[in-house]
Structure formats: C-alpha cells, structure tokens
Amino acid sequence: DESAVHLSAALSGKTERRYHEGLARRLLYGNLYSMAGNESADDPGGYIQEGDTYLLAWKYDRAISAYQAALRERPGRLDAMRKLADVLMSAGNDDQATLLYKQLLNADRNNSDIRYTLGVLYERQGKLDEAEQQYLNVVRQDPENGDARRHLADIFTLRGDFPLAVREYKELLNKHPENPLLHFRLARTYDRSKKYNEAITEYLETIRLAPDNLEAHKELGALYRKRGKVSEAAIQYRTVLRLDRNDLHARNNLIALCVELKRYNELFELVKEGVEVFPDDPNSHFKLGLVLESRKNYQGSIVAYQAALLLKKDHARSLKGLGKVYLRLGELDKAKIYLDAAKMADPSLLETSELLYSLRIEQTRLTAGEERKKQMLKKKKHKTRKKKVVKSGKKNKRKKTSHKKRK
C-alpha cells in the first residue's frame, strides 16, 4: 500500500530524499512494475542475476557494473536499463538515473509508473516544473493514482498555491479518510495559508488517527501558542515529552509556557529533569541555576552555574548568572570577576552591562558610605578631644581659685 510508505516516511521524520530512496528500493525489490518487451529470461552472461544479488546486499557499485555489462552485451535491453536506472536512483546518482528514465519513457510513453518515478527524481532535484508535468500526465493516464496527486499537492503547497493543494488533499481524503498523513499535510497547508481554525481541526484529526505522532503534537502546540492558546499549547508539549522525554524542542517550549503561565512548580520539575536527561548540556544546568536563583536558593544556583562552566568554561549566561548572584549576596569582588568574564565571552549580552553598571553604583555607594563613616569618626574624635581640653581647663581654673582662697 503506497499510502503506508508515505505515512511511515512522514511520521518517522525522515527527509524527503531518504523517503524517495526508500521508494526506489521498494519498487525494485518488490518488482512491482512490468516492462513491455521484458527479456529478463534471456541472460546468457548472468549479469542481471549478478546485479540483483549485489543490489540485495546493498552493494550498489557492483550492481551498477553488472547491469552495465548486461547492456554492453545487449544494448537497448529494457529490463537491464530499468534495473540500472533504479539502482542509480537508490545510490543517489540522480542525473544518470534521470537520463535512463527519459530513455525508458521514450520507449513506452504510456507507462505511468516510469512517469511517476521520473517525477520523483525531478522533485528531489528541485525541478518542480518538470516534476509537476510528469505527475499531471500520470493523473491524466490514471486518475486513481493517489501518489501522484499527493506529490502534486506537495508541489502546490511549496509554491504557495494553497487552494490547489487543498483541492488535491481533499480529493485524496475522500478516498482515504482514515489516512493520518493526508490530514497532517492538509493541516500544514491550512497553517501556511493562515486558515488557522481549519489547520487546528486537521491536526486534531491527525492526532486522533495517530496519537503518537510527535510532529503533529509539536506543530499543533506551536499553532496554539501563535493563536494565544497557551494552556492548550502546553498540553501538546507535555504529550510530546510523555512520548519522548529527550525532545529538547518540546522541553524548551514547555519551559517558556510554564513561565508565561506562572506554573513555577512544574517549571522547577522540568528543569531538574532536563539536567537528568541532558547532563552534558551546559544550558540545562544554566536553566536550573536560573530557576534556583528565582527561588532565592542562591547557594544552589551557584552550584548549578558552576556545573555549566565545568562543561563550557566560557558559557556567558552562566558567568553572568554567577555575577548576578554574588552581586545580590554583596560579594562585589567576585561579582566583578564573573561579570567581566561574561562580557568578554559574549559582548552582546546586554544584561551583563546593566549588572556591571549596578555593580559600579553599589561600589560607589559603599565607598561614599565608608568615607562618611571616616568623617563621622574624625568629627567624633575631634569633639572628644575638645571636651577633654575644656574639662582640663575648668579643672585648672578650679584649682587656681581654691589656691587663692587658701591664701
């Protein structure tokens, strides 16, 4: 079932190139095509059988050599030409494969399978006009060919011709209403055309049919967030992490949403788990330090920031975090050391400059305070000495008066 191949490729996150290579191998190994004038029974040199053996062992170079030998033995042999085209496509030799498929198409203009494969080759080479023409011809020859229609819809979407893409996807869904890939592609098309409500509906239908589809959950989460539905977005990212706790993209988005929703306990658990899942990532330790700092656990935040610096000694945000914490603790010398290092590691980090400015103000305040204390102590000493002089004078005066009286 071709739709199963598409579904597996899309939902497993494979690139388009890998998917088309898989399609070429499936066509070859399954022998799902038939050629007019097939002469495979006549293989006196055994080259075709030899090529098939190498191909099944994924030895593309040797398979190519064997099929080329078969063609040298009998030029124009269609079955050998087709096998050679297939293995060249599987090996990624798109230009040579395209030339052979064009020759095969000239030999059999009504072969929709060759047209379709040629369309796939053009598409993965970025030749969308040529690919579209081949797919259109396939659909004219075989209106029931859903694969050609799906590729047409993909090309229309890439070009931004969304009404045509929607038309093709809906046509396919009329025949395959339970195919999650088609709903997923239609959701993306609606999203790109800014028909967000329709996109949400199709993403939800994709998830109903394929509940473990990580991409559908992530894209729906991103769409919810774009539409201001923050709680709904958080649900989608939580589901992704339940399915795959190593998904860093989902974790970072959920962290941001927890901050926005002020769900600080969940945020704390997320960043703690992040350190467990990504112990060698300095950013995970930095985030833990940031959350601990916000909870006024300054010693814990210092430990987390220092753990990040053990992994990356010039991690600017962790250096800045340490400087900020030491500034809060009033340890200005340490604060200056780390803030200067943060500015050197990343001069574009604006908060570092602001913190250094605050540090200078604090140092000036403390210096002025110490100067005032010195002045006050000086005045106090001066007053004390003055009082002593006055007392001493009075005492001497009393002594003189007493002496006169005695006389």
Task: Present the secondary structure layout.
Blueprint: H1 2-11, H2 16-30, H3 47-56, H4 60-73, H5 78-90, H6 94-107, H7 112-124, H8 128-141, H9 146-159, H10 162-175, H11 180-192, H12 196-209, H13 214-226, H14 230-243, H15 248-261, H16 264-277, H17 282-294, H18 298-311, H19 316-328, H20 332-345, H21 350-406
Helix pairs in contact: 1-2, 2-5, 2-7, 3-4, 4-5, 5-6, 6-7, 7-8, 8-9, 9-10, 10-11, 11-12, 12-13, 13-14, 14-15, 15-16, 16-17, 17-18, 17-19, 18-19, 19-20, 19-21, 20-21
Report strand %: under 5%
User: What's the rounded overall pLDDT mean?
Assistant: 84
Total strands: the figure is 0
* Radius of gyration over C-alpha positions, nearest whole angstrom: 38 Å
Terminal CA distance: 138 Å
Question: Keywords, please?
Answer:
mainly alpha; 407 residues
Task: Kindly describe this structure.
The protein is mainly α. The chain contains 21 helices and no strands. Mean pLDDT is 84; it is low at 1-21 and 23-41.
Brief overview, please?
The protein has 21 helices and no strands. It is an all-alpha fold and 407 residues long. The chain is elongated, with a radius of gyration of 38 Å.
